[in-house]
Amino acid sequence: MQVDNFLARYNSSLNSHLIDSKKRELEDVKSKEEEKKFDEALREQTDAFEAFMVKTVLDVSLQDKVSVFEKDKASDEIYSSMYNDTMSKALSGGMGFSELLFNFLKERS
């Protein structure tokens, strides 16, 4: 009888230890997945912010102040805006500002 009681307590203890271990592993996996999703969302936002900054710089720097030929203002503005938007998206993430901002915000969170 004592052996049976000992084995029952031992199995109970072992099972609870295994269950706790599996729970911790599951929590670790969930936290890693949540961290990965957070990192992806943060990276997307920092890249978008860098694209916005680059577009602002391009808008200011590529303004035509004096033109030799008369131009249609509306179509030129639309074309310039689209060009600057495309260029800013192409350059975003490659200038290093996004990486710097990402690392700063990741440390702060």
Draw up the topology in text.
Layout: H1 2-61, H2 73-91, H3 97-108
Helix pairs in contact: 1-2, 1-3
Structure description:
By secondary structure, the chain is mostly helical. Helices cover 83% and strands 0% of the residues. The chain contains three helices and no strands. Helix 1 packs antiparallel against helix 2 (73-91) and helix 1 (2-61) runs antiparallel to helix 3. It is rod-shaped. The two termini are 56 Å apart.
Descriptive keywords:
mainly alpha, 109 residues
Brief summary of the model shown:
The chain has 109 residues and is an all-alpha fold. It has helices at residues 2-61, 73-91, 97-108.
Order of helices and strands: HHH
- Mean pLDDT over all positions: 79
Assembly state (oligomeric)? single chain
Major sheet description: none
Strand content: under 5%
| Low-pLDDT stretches | none
Structural class by helix and strand composition: mainly alpha
Helix percent band:
over 70%
Question: How many DSSP helices?
Answer: 3
Calculate Rg over CA atoms: 29 Å
Cα shape: rod-shaped
Strand tally, please?
Answer: 0
State the end-to-end CA separation: 56 Å
Number of domains: 1
Organism: Campylobacter avium LMG 24591
Protein name: Putative flagellar protein FlgJ
Keywords: Cell projection, Cilium, Flagellum
